[in-house]
């Protein structure tokens, strides 16, 4: 356990990485139709557990409700957007002004979830 971990700094870094992913995705085209790659990103902040799973072919994985919530945020996200939960929004500080409220999305197993969207500026 890292006692010096700053959740706000972690949220800002993950959000910046997601923004860069969307910007870069526009530069990559699909080989079959020359359309830009379309991606969705969901971000949630909270506790999780990580470790190796399996003995014959061990795989690194991250587990927990936080991961499930982030996955639901991604699944309900518009294409080429980043969707963050309210837990992450509160940690983003000044960057939260870049996000627009969705009015909530229904997530299986979670019910209504307050989320916020970011889209890269149009060129």
Q: What does it look like?
A:
This protein has helices at residues 7-25, 65-75, 86-89, and strands at residues 40-43, 49-53, 59-63, 81-85, 100-101, 105-107, 111-113, 115-118. The protein is of the alpha+beta class and 123 residues long. The strands form 3 sheets. Strands 1-4-8-5 form a 4-stranded mixed β-sheet. A hairpin with a 3-residue loop joins strand 6 (105-107) and strand 7. The longest helix has 19 residues, at 7-25.
Describe the structure in brief.
It is built from three helices and eight strands; from the N terminus they run H-E-E-E-H-E-H-E-E-E-E. The chain has helices at residues 7-25, 65-75, 86-89, and strands at residues 40-43, 49-53, 59-63, 81-85, 100-101, 105-107, 111-113, 115-118. The longest helix has 19 residues, at 7-25.
Name a few traits of the molecule.
3 helices; 123 residues; 8 strands; alpha+beta; two-stranded antiparallel ribbon; single chain; 25% strand; 4-stranded mixed beta sheet
The largest sheet is: 4 strands, mixed
Low-pLDDT segments, ≥5 res: none
* Lateral arrangement of strands in the main beta sheet: 1-4-8-5
The secondary-structure class comes to alpha+beta
Instruction: Indicate the percent of residues in helices.
Output: 25-40%
How confident is the prediction overall: mean pLDDT? 91
Beta-strand proportion: 25-35%
Note the run of SSEs as H and E. Answer: HEEEHEHEEEE
Query: How big is the Rg?
Result: 16 Å
Tell me, what's the shape?
A: globular
- Total DSSP helices: 3
Counting DSSP E segments of at least 2 residues, the number of strands comes to: 8
Task: Tell me the span between the first and last alpha carbons.
Answer: 43 Å
